[in-house]
From TrEMBL:
<protein>
    <recommendedName>
        <fullName>Parvulin-like PPIase</fullName>
    </recommendedName>
</protein>
<keyword id="KW-0812">Transmembrane</keyword>
<dbReference type="InterPro" id="IPR000297">
    <property type="entry name" value="PPIase_PpiC"/>
</dbReference>
<keyword id="KW-0997">Cell inner membrane</keyword>
<keyword id="KW-1003">Cell membrane</keyword>
<keyword id="KW-0143">Chaperone</keyword>
<comment type="similarity">
    <text>Belongs to the PpiD chaperone family.</text>
</comment>
<feature type="domain" description="PpiC">
    <location>
        <begin position="247"/>
        <end position="369"/>
    </location>
</feature>
<dbReference type="Pfam" id="PF13624">
    <property type="entry name" value="SurA_N_3"/>
</dbReference>
<keyword id="KW-1133">Transmembrane helix</keyword>
<dbReference type="Pfam" id="PF13145">
    <property type="entry name" value="Rotamase_2"/>
</dbReference>
<dbReference type="InterPro" id="IPR046357">
    <property type="entry name" value="PPIase_dom_sf"/>
</dbReference>
<keyword id="KW-0472">Membrane</keyword>
<dbReference type="InterPro" id="IPR052029">
    <property type="entry name" value="PpiD_chaperone"/>
</dbReference>
<dbReference type="InterPro" id="IPR027304">
    <property type="entry name" value="Trigger_fact/SurA_dom_sf"/>
</dbReference>
Amino acid sequence: MLDTLRSAARSWVAKLLLMLLVVSFAIWGVSASIFSGANNSVMTVGNQRVSPEEFRLAYQRQLGAISRQLGMQLTSEQARAFGIEQQTFSQLSAGAALDELSSKMRLGLSQDRLANLIAEDPAFHGNNGQFDRNVFSARLRNAGLREQDYITERSKVAVRSQVVDAIADGFQAPTVMVDALKKYRDESRDLEFLVLSNANIDPIKAPTEAVLASWFQTNKSKYRAPELRRFAYVTLQPTDVADPAAVTDEQVRAEYDRRKDAYKTPATRTIEQLAFPSKEMAVAALQQMKERQLTFDQLVADQGKTAADVMLGDFTKDQIPDQTIADAAFAVPASGGTTGIIQGSFGPVMLRVTNVRAETTKSFDEVKDEVRKTLALAAASQAVQSVHDRFEDLRGSGSSLEEAASQLKLKAVTVASDRTGHDGDGKTIDLPPADTLLTDVFRTDVGAESIPSNLGNDGYVWFDVREVIPERDRALSEVRERATTDWTAEQQREALSKKTTDLKAQLDKGGLTLAAIATELGLTVETKTGLRRQSNDAILGGDAAKAAFSGPNGIYATALAADGESRLLMHVTNVQQQPSDALDANDQQIKQIAGAAGDDLLDQMVVQLQNDYGVSINRALAEQAMVR
């Protein structure tokens, strides 16, 4: 029994010991009897005794924490399987061991310090952020605690914390440990390697029926058919009740005229701009253009510029911030035309305009169907709630899902799906995009009445579960093709792994080089420099880094490549050690080392205390406490 307690004691986080009895009102469900002096004890550690009520409340806290993590209330059998009872024994025995040590060391707490601790507790602060006597009394009263009982226990936990803080928080990581870890972390290696694929092994022959059947029998759990739910559903969205035929031609015409600007595509053109240092140079360039019949491109070249230098892009008139430039650009009548000299906001420029596209407006005939649908959907959005209520009334009066859908001109669909939206063959089912539909379906029993799931912001999905199809083992005949593919892939992995292992063995014996193997296999020797232990190279992957650091300089190693299929044959050619300058005192790694080592010391001390003081447990009394 003691061995079990010691083993379990190593698993809890030491600093949470202070939380076992007091502190958080958010999780309390305590009554005053926790502090009663019962003659019978569930646990005794030295002179410290744990009452049945203390054990029961600690057990319920542990059970509640696990239940919240899993999102379900655990049964007593499930709690036993999770080892919650043993965890509770471990926590309480650890706390009692610290209390016994505190008693033997004659540790204490002044009344002034105890008063400050209580006053600093945010649970007892009023609206002004200060300790409030009325809040203090009300909180204890709501928790079913007498004030003196709470003060006694708060003092007990504060004394216990002196031991915890001295051991765990007072620990400083030795410099030797930190330096060694830094060297370990910062070491890098260079290597050469080959990437072997399935092309480097003999083809795998198709399996015989006996071989495949035997393999399938061993791996049949991978092909197990999941539980399916056959259910019918009906969706209600604006698109389901929209009736374009109900929209009159007059309404469509009126909507088109009202939104006619929305169907316009504004005129656009591509604009190039050649800037000049001064107005005089701009005028001279324009004069040369006319007299010598120079092109815009030649003027650009004369200034030592390129087409990219003068390209502004495609614009509508409203998009051009300089109105003078905009007016001039959109006054050019045809594509390829240029302007004269324009005095823009930043100096004189000349423009060339290409890709001239005139403003267009879609005609009524082009968009009337689109407008009709838009109006129908707008009207349907307002009618969805009315249809929802009518559907609920029909269902309430005894109509089946299909009957209600038929009367309201909705469509009922029946599917069989697993929890992930796939059918029995693993194919994706086209289901309504309702976030909770499948969750709700798998929570509902056959024939049980259910509420509709939300479909977006303005839709609903009703469903009826018709059948629960249990999960089952599939026969080989149902998955033969998939099983054959998986068997072949497994044989390829094993063959490739064996080949790289055999090649490594030859390299280890000597007389063979990686280059010689590469020549024989038609591969190329690749290299990698500066590989770190934490590296996750895109080609090598994390497994390769572990293998490369598994031995000294010069080792050969094999590993799975980053693609999860190829195998690597590696040779470490160089090991580089970084200078072991000390880490900064605030380095997060030092804090992690100190925290982990300090907690480990505290764990070991508690186990030793439990061994020295002795731990006795009355399991029969504990069983009674758990069922109360």
